[in-house]
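cache lookup: miss for this entity combination. No prior model stored, computing from scratch. Input as submitted by user K.M.:
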Amino acid sequence: MSELDRREFLKIVGLSAGAAAAAGCSEPAEKLIPYVIQPETITPGISVDYASTCLECSSGCGLHVKTREGRPIKLEGNPEHPINKGRLCARGQASLGRTYHPDRIAGPATRSGDGSLQPISWDDARGKLAAKLGSAAGKTWILGGPVGPSLDGLLDQIVAATGIAGRLRYEPFGDHALVDASQRIFGANAAPIFDLTGADLVVDFGSDFLDTGRSPVEHARQLSEGRDIASQANGGARVIAVGARQNLTVSSADLWVPAKPGSEGVLALALAQAVANSKGNAAVAAATSGASKDAALAAAGIDGALFDKLVAKLSGATRAVALPPGVASSTTAGRGTAAAVLLLNAAVSAIGTTVKYPAVDAKRTASLADVKALVLKMNAGQVECLLIHDLNPVYSLPAALGFRDALAKVELVVTFAPLADETTERASLLLPDHTPMEAWGDASPRPGVRSLVQPTIRPLFDTQALGDTLLSAARAIGGEAVATLPAGSWKSVLESNWATTSWRHALARGGEFGETPLREVALVAGAAGLKVALPEIAGAGDFTLIAFPHSFYGDGRGAALPWMQEIPDPVTKLSWNSWVELSHAKAAELDLKFGDVVTIATEAGSVDVSVFPRGGIPDDVIAMPIGQGHTVGHYASMTGDEQPQPGVARGVNLAEILPAATDEAGGQAFLSTKATVTKTGRFRRLALSQWTDNQRKRGLAPEVSLYDLAQAGSMAHFLAASPASASEHSDTEGAEGGEHARGGHHFSGPPFEFDPANDAHPDQPYRWGMTIDNDRCTGCSACVVACYVENNVSIVGEQQAIRRREMSWLRIERYVGDGDDDVSADSERRPIPSGEVLGETQVRYLPMLCQHCGAAPCEAVCPVIATYHNDEGINGMVYNRCVGTRYCANNCTYKVRRFNYFDYGRKNWPGLLGLMLNPDVTVRGQGVMEKCSFCVQRIETARQPVKDVGKPIPDGAVKTACQQSCPTDAISFGNVRDTASAPVKRAVQGANRAYRALQILNTRSAVTYLSKVRREEHEGVH
Amino acid sequence: MLESKSDATLYRRTDHGRTRRRSGWSVGSLLFALATAGLATAVVFWSGWPTPGEGTASASNEESEESEEAANSASGDLASSGPVMVATGVCDAHRLKAMKEADPSVAIEIPAEFDKQFPSANACQSAVDAWDEAAPGPNQPIPFSHKHHSGQFKIECLYCHSDTDKSKAAGVPSVELCMGCHSQFPLEYDEIEGIRILKQHWEEKKPIEWIQIHRLPEHVQFRHNRHIKAGVACQTCHGPVQELDKLYLVPDTKLGYLVPVAKLEMGWCISCHRQNNQQASQDCLKCHH
């Protein structure tokens, strides 16, 4: 064999490589598929917005659906809509995924004898339904979730015309107790509207109004306006949160009253009595004569001083509002509690100002008690056909109710859900509805405000609107009664309901937004001497079980959406699974650490779940989120996991262990049972995205007291203050701690002082920058979802999230206090997440994104210049140039760079989900680093029209996705070389609390943060 | 034939360029790329890569030669086989007439129903050439000729690609737009297969699945409207489409680089962005985001 010389060797290598390269060229050709008829409104490459309404919860926020080439790609708030005014919460934005979801049911189907689904035609399906309705209408029931007023009216008409036995409008998180209490206290059969505009004191009795409450986007906006530090030197509205568990609202509260769970009503009544007495309100005093301060103190477990402080604050407030309990604190005494809170509102003269009653009576909704009655009928064989729409009762009804067994006795179960769920699994006839993106509809968040839902994409599957399905089935029965049904389709019914207004105008605007007609209310005579009982918390066990609604899952429907699983819970920072919160002391006592699996048992059942020890919960309470534990669904169950386990639940369903307890009005009482905690000895790791809330005195998220702000006066004064003198006024930090905090804190110059050597090209007019007001941030994570959707950020799944490979470009960091620099606590591998102390709110949220540093550490280490600084100050990331060394991520000061280990962008959009990707943003491939781009695609879009006329981009023309979504307007973005731009104005206005994250490292960050303001310290200085 | 081979090679090379992994290079793939580049250079020399300035011209010359050749051989066959050639359609009539003109000794017969002006000889020829297997580029679902529409009839590019000056996407005309003109044409035009396919699509309301020729990788955000506003001619990037019956990625050989730069690769983009006093941006983020 002859020896190869070098030349020969290279030739061979070259040939074989060439052959491989030629083989690699056989990529199928891409197709260009133009329209057959191009719609006039569509220009490929240019997005069109349509106004619609979010149906994810009952708040009824207005939407602008951004579509490209006829496909919805992003949901934003409708700026004209009175509820959300252009903002949108995390859940609303994530609802985009429903339309493209892999769980979509492809078309009508019947279940055959062996349990498999057989597709049928719509005609056959309608025939089956009509035959049943014709023969057994009297034994047919409709069980449905909340629907818009037009569909509601149509369903009632259909029920009347066909002789269907009855219809239940059931919402798991209903407001029965509040409506019933309003009726008893004020004679008003309606739920009040809580208006926080101009309020100076908000007392939350566990409604969690900033997160899972009645209208979180609206309330968060109203509160942030009322707390704007720039316009109100005294700090504006104060928030007092009453509740055992530290939730998102408590995190933002100025004062936390950790009353024992279930004591809210007794406490509210005693407070109402004391306030009424101090204000001389005889009517309320009479109504609250049954209250007892001592009993309240004992029930709530708080001391008299705190009670007196609450009374003083409530009496001193000029415009206070008290919010009645939400789901997490709904008890068997729910109506009494709501009544007590309403009386407190009356005592502070809030009725008519911050608590308003609409003139229109609320339509009665079914309560859990009504569903119980239906289950009895089903068991007795009195229900032959059950139609289920907009509801997943098999999942969400308490297992103790026996709905599942009763359902097996119903001959024909018909579901209309567009996505497969636990109920469709047990249905014999599936007639899938459109998703809200594909359908016509309307909503009425409150009287006077009507909002339209319009389709923004042609139905992707063989689905039919619920209204049309039932109308045609009813018509197929025939008969005289049916002739009374409205003619035409569901859409024409909707149009006729909107005949009083211009249809086209309403479509363009998103609805008809008028004033809500209000009614004057006063205490009714029967309200005197109201007695509020302590709720019954049944069962054995050392712990009271708080079942709280998860920020993202709602009643469980949100668990199907990929972002809602992937994005960590704002409070615990856990994702993809269930957990049980337990106090540190109890965890130590039971020898439990983070991730240890315990059995939670109640009288209704038991579940196994991992432990998450934390500080913000009392020793005798455990808390678990509602919404996980689905056995059906690509994301909701383990079906779509990295190691797929079809039909296995992801997390646990609290309906398995909650008793079917109800309050006086029949609504479900979620806080109604005690539970036992038993160690199993097993361990199941949870995906925790932030392992510590200890910021180690680095001043990442500092806090300024009102006193310090007043003392500082001007920024110059503030900056001149030496660390020692600053700490004199700071009672939360020791002298040394103050030094540390300030060390990372202050500017060496005014905000956004331009440095031509680092920040941007001196000849270019722009340096893009951002100001984030931590004082406005509630941590709700709407911005995180906005970023995920806008920038095609990948979902990595639970297994990868556990390995901390999540791809979020923007995260909300959560810190408690300034932290301590004792690092020994971290020597253990499992996290010690909580510096929380019961009754103290030291929580600070810090939205963390790429800081687009002028002197960026990442840029210096990239061997291929894939990350670089552009002339306009943006830290660019060129994906196609990146070779994946990850040096940049290692050198990033802020840990905002994300590495794509397994081509998540291509693999993790199953089904049609890829259709909703934003075509303006590259889908990053495997082995590439990625990070926040300051939404450079939005900058370029805004540049187009002004470049043609040779003008600069005006301030406000570019809104980043995070900024656009923020309910509290915490983020402002713009050109910081323009001293009149919004971010500069805000930073200068708030200069005495402005800082850059880890300023001490001189990265010349383009993001200026404004510290959270501590309103409760030095009370009375102003 | 050498010329034609080089075109094919170049087309393939370009194809390779766009299928390259976006995720960057490993050390292995760098070596691999070096080796590939070496081979490619070798191929260039072996196959007589066109020298700067003559690429497109020689390609079209070669094409016309080839078609003439085909015509000649065809006529030879027919002349030897029979006395009178009878036209079977209008296009066939055009062909026979041309044959007669070239060689008056040929006996032809044109039935009256085929002795018509339309479809024109050009239209017939373009439709054939657009599906010429020998020509570079893929066969499209319809034998559509840019040469016929844009070159011979001088229809503005923006008449059909009407979003080019409005949007980042140029837009491919809808079937409706095609039918806007073609529905008014005499029925004789149906003799051309392309027209029949077009009308079939229109009747079935079925979109046409064109094969993309000028393709940028997914990580490039290109804005057509910006380039139109800057006065860049369509042909700068798309080649002399008005001269092409069948579209392919026409190589650009005007640059005096050792390895000629193919069109629509980044070096080629940048070479233009560097011209004219650097008015065009060279910021990575302009196109890569």
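stored under new cache key. Residues 230 and 276 of chain B are 11 Å apart (CA to CA).
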